[in-house]
Amino acid sequence: MALELRQQLKLSQQLVMTPQLQQAIKLLQLSRLELMETVQQELLENPFLEESAESITPADATEAAEIRSEAVEAYDKELATNADWEDYLGDFSSTSRQTSSRDAEIPEEMTSFEARLTSRPSLDGHLSWQLTLSSITEEQRTIGEVIIGNIGSNGYLQATMEEIADMAGATVPEVEVMLRRVQRFDPVGVAARSPQECLLVQIEVLGYDRDPVLVELVREHLEDLEKRRYKPLCRKFRINMDDLKEYIDLILTLDPMPGASFGSSEPQYVSPDVFVHKYDGEFVIILNEEGLPSLQLSDIVDCLPTVSGPDKDYFQEKMRSASWLIKSLHQRQRTLYKVMESIVKYQRGFFEEGVTQLKPLILKDIAEDIGMHESTVSRITTSKYVSTPHGIFELKFFFNSAIGMDDGSSVGSESVKALIRQLVQGEDPRRPLSDERIGEILKEKLQLNIARRTVAKYRTAMDIPSSSKRKSAF
Questions:
Q1: Is the pTM of this model over 0.90?
Q2: pLDDT at 406
Q3: What pLDDT is recorded for position 224?
Q4: Which alpha helices (DSSP H) does 134-188 contain, by range?
Q5: Beta bridge partner(s), residue 274
Q6: Using an 8 Å Cβ cutoff, are 50 and 43 in contact?
């Protein structure tokens, strides 16, 4: 067959992100300390930026920047022709490109800040980095991001398949497929829904799943092993104690807390991004801008029209970058305020009475309330903390799944965890409450439908030992 050269037309859609937009999106997910470092670095590198001597608000800084920009409008046409900011944030998701990672190289700017850290990487950053390198469709990438965003610090999934499907705009079978893939990321077993599932995934990856005895021990008899009911197990599987000991030793090599290695036992001191105070029966939201410089364009902007030659392009780019940074900072603070205002509205019971009054809440609820995309809400709540009348909490703390009650209403999972913690703290040390008994108490007092396995899952997530271990501790 002869070789020939042909021309072919191909129509495709692609969201092209400017460097300014990439910078703005990165600013959303930075913590307060990281944001301060970024701003200080920009002040050092950009001659068009300077710190205002007066204490002005970000809105004032933005207005001043716009006034100065009008003087050099001829040099700012490219920025002016970009799409509206709200359009970008409203329609943009982190799966911004329609091509796969095999078709085009992913720029460094799109890599999350956490994924580029060399010391103490976060669990979600480590998983996001692996997700970025995976050969998957854009729909699967969206599902994967939602799954990773709902993984707790101990590595367990904290949302149901239905909730993840709703947030990702996918079906439950599609979520199950992607969950299976994420569970095989490093650390293996992450995003499991129970200790049994976590260990079974590790057994499969290690190639031990061909042993039916080992699989059955993990799936159905972890509690028997924990309480050392060895003889019934030997009779059931027709093995001797030496064989059972080998199985136990193998199980002990597995990691039931795959996310623990990414945490730190050292105390972490955080500076709240937001303060919520009660004043005259209403809750007042105050953004913490202490230490964050007020930026403005320097007087060198006035000299820009007189510049010519090779320095002209450099000055144009730096001026646009400075103007966009000021606007980006203002929009970041405005978005943070709107999200916090919506959280206070949905979780007013928590701010009034405490953790036990937390209601079920998902990212979609806040996104629809403030008219933004879920990915925007996810980014602005990452590594952000709020000081409340009941302590300092991460913004993601207010998002939790629902548990049904007998009257048809629902209660937030974090509220249930708080109630379980209260019951354990008030129990008789000589006769600690079993998971089954805790479930019965919740049923009697709150008309709450909760299974023993769910109680055990929440207890494990809070690092509370089982009743047998709590008894032995006294």
A1: no
A2: 53
A3: 86
A4: 138-149, 161-168, 172-182
A5: 287, 386
A6: yes
